[in-house]
Amino acid sequence: MQKNAGVSRRVWVVGSMLSAPLLALLVACDPQRISELEEGLANEADVRARFGEPAAIYTDETGSRTFEYPRQPAGQVNYMITIGPDGKMSALSQVLKAANFAKVVSGWDKAQVRRLLGRPAKAQRYALKQIEVWDWRFAEGNEAKLFSVTFDNDGRVTGTGTAIDELVPGGGKS
């Protein structure tokens, strides 16, 4: 089992490194894309023209729809862009931040966590422990970190944690 876990981690690391230049280019364009969208004026077509097809779309009871634009695994942000019932953009948020991490509590299911934080950088199942761990890469000041959520066999949160992102050169300093 230990050997497979090491291979799995190496594959994830190599995959992250291979996609890093492409993702870096994509993420570098995000500030420009964001500056071109104005809340209350931009519409769904404007959002899609700048960000492309969302990874997921969430609809709430008011008719608002939130588009998920993850920048994982190599990036350190995930965006949620909300289109109100009037068809106009009502919010654009970078969701990988301490205030959102604090909302994730024991008992939440995977769908609730995904809706709040977007697609994780990595999801790893540990069969012997009967758990699954999702990781998101994020920046806190100039430090690269990982936020992790542990789920039980029923897909419910049992714990969370934050650590230095050892994959970033310089010991987690970005």
Overall description:
The protein is built from four helices and eight strands; from the N terminus they run ααββββααββββ. With 174 residues, the chain is of the alpha+beta class. It has a single domain, classed as Beta-lactamase Inhibitory Protein, Chain:B, domain 1, CATH 3.30.1450. The chain has a four-stranded antiparallel beta sheet, covered by helices on one side. A four-stranded antiparallel beta sheet has the order 5-6-7-8, with no helix packed on it. A hairpin with a 2-residue loop joins strand 6 (131-140) and strand 7. The model is unreliable at 1-26 (pLDDT under 50).
What's the helix and strand layout?
Elements: H1 2-35, H2 44-51, E1 56-59, E2 65-70, E3 78-83, E4 89-94, H3 98-101, H4 110-117, E5 122-126, E6 131-140, E7 143-151, E8 157-164
Antiparallel strand pairs: 1-2, 2-3, 3-4, 5-6, 6-7, 7-8
Proportion of helical residues: 25-40%
- Write the CATH architecture name: 2-Layer Sandwich
- Characterize the quaternary organization of these chains: single chain
Rg over CA atoms? 17 Å
CATH class type: Alpha Beta
What's the main sheet like?
4 strands, antiparallel
The average pLDDT score comes to 86
Number of strands: 8
> At the third CATH level, what is the topology name?
Beta-lactamase Inhibitory Protein, Chain:B, domain 1
Shape summary: globular
Beta-sheet strand percentage? 25-35%
The H-and-E topology, N to C, reads as HHEEEEHHEEEE
